[in-house]
């Protein structure tokens, strides 16, 4: 009789261990499944699908902090492109400068007004002169805010009779602002000034 009771007690203890093991295993499986599901959700959210020219492209979202230097340099390049890329057409000049002035503060507008007072834009139109710019490099200090930058570029004034190549060096600061269609990077150039804008090469056809 006692042997029978011991067998029952032993079986009961064994069943408890089996049930406990089953519960622990189920919990581990559930936690693993939840974790894997959350990882899959994060990974799916990090992918953005962009439709371009009839093709679906897969882009990966990233923390803005990782891309700040890249976006800042592109913002500076865009600003200089719009401010200095001009053709002998009043509408083209107005469109480009309007885009440029969305990316900078009154320091850029002051330079624009100064050039306008000197009839610079009228001279481009009357002389059928095109102006192009290529940004060679951008030095950016990300250790302090607002971010200081220095931009080195090559500027070309193209006439029918000659092409003048100029060295352009500018500097300023970048501060964060809200993103918009007019300012996709969310930066604003401040205290912008031209350090050098001198002829380097004059070529004739």
Number of strands: 6
How big is the Rg?
A: 32 Å
The helix/strand order is HEEHHHHEEEE
Shape: rod-shaped
Main sheet specs:
4 strands, antiparallel
Oligomer: single chain
Reported CATH architecture of the largest domain: Roll
| Structural class by secondary-structure content | alpha+beta
User: Roughly how many Å apart are the termini?
Assistant: 118 Å
Structure report:
It contains 5 helices and 6 strands. It is an alpha+beta fold. Strand 3 and strand 4 form a beta hairpin.
SSE layout:
Blueprint: H1 2-45, E1 47-52, E2 55-60, H2 64-84, H3 90-101, H4 106-117, H5 120-126, E3 130-141, E4 147-158, E5 163-176, E6 187-203
Antiparallel strand pairs: 1-2, 3-4, 4-5, 5-6
Please provide a brief summary of the model.
With 205 residues, the protein is an alpha+beta fold.
Features:
transmembrane helix, alpha+beta, two-stranded antiparallel sheet, 2 domains, four-stranded antiparallel β-sheet, rod-shaped
């Amino acid at each position: 009789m006692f042997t029978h009771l011991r067998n029952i007690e032993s079986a009961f203890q064994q069943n408890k261990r089996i049930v406990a093991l089953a519960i622990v295993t189920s919990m581990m499986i559930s936690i693993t499944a939840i974790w894997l599901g959350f990882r899959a959700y994060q990974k799916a959210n990090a992918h953005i699908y962009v439709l371009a020219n009839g093709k679906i492209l897969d882009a990966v979202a990233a923390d803005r902090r990782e891309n700040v230097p890249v976006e800042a340099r592109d913002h500076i390049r865009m600003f200089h492109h719009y401010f200095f890329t001009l053709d002998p057409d009043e509408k083209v000049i107005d469109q480009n400068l309007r885009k440029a002035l969305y990316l900078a503060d009154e320091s850029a507008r002051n330079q624009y007004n100064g050039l306008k007072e000197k009839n610079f834009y009228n001279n481009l139109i009357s002389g059928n002169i095109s102006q192009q710019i290529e940004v060679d490099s951008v030095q950016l200090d990300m250790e302090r805010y607002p971010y200081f930058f220095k931009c080195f570029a090559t500027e070309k004034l193209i006439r029918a009779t000659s092409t003048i190549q100029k060295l352009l060096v500018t500097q300023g600061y970048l501060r964060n602002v809200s993103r918009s269609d007019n300012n996709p990077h969310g930066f604003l150039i401040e205290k912008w000034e031209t350090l050098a804008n001198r002829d380097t090469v004059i070529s004739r056809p």
